[in-house]
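Worked Example 4.2. Consider the chain below.
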Amino acid sequence: TKETVISMGTVLRGEITNENNISINGLVEGDLTSQKVTQIGKEGKVIGTVKSVKLVVNGLLKGSCYAKTVVIMSRGRIEGEVFATEFSIEKGGVFIGNSHQIEEPQLPTEKKEKKRMVTMGDHSPSLTAVENTQEKIDSSSGKNVAVGN
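Applying the procedure from the previous section yields the following structure tokens:
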């Protein structure tokens, strides 16, 4: 499998569109689109929007993400909006923002007319916990804050 790697110490500003896996260990400021898996490593940081089939975060994402599956690993952190079919947070992972369950991933190959977001009624935003993850509302911002224990 082909993979694009953004190495530690690399700073990339702009838009990335890729048909293969992407592994980020440096800094990306901008929008990133992958037709497969996007991984943000322990040293990786993305400021912008990520669109991918699967997103695995073990570093930092500040912005929005659209994926079928989003996983925040034990050292991962997402600050922003998550639009996903499946969303999980490992013990130690941090999520600050809003999550939305979608019926289909909103990937660039889909036409805008076909995109549909399904909300879960009064339960949106929602979290799927993996191992004792707790959710609380930050009283200063009114946002959901999830922290793995």
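Residues 110-137 have pLDDT under 50 and may be disordered. The CA atoms of residues 15 and 31 lie 5 Å apart. Compare this with Example 4.1 before moving on.
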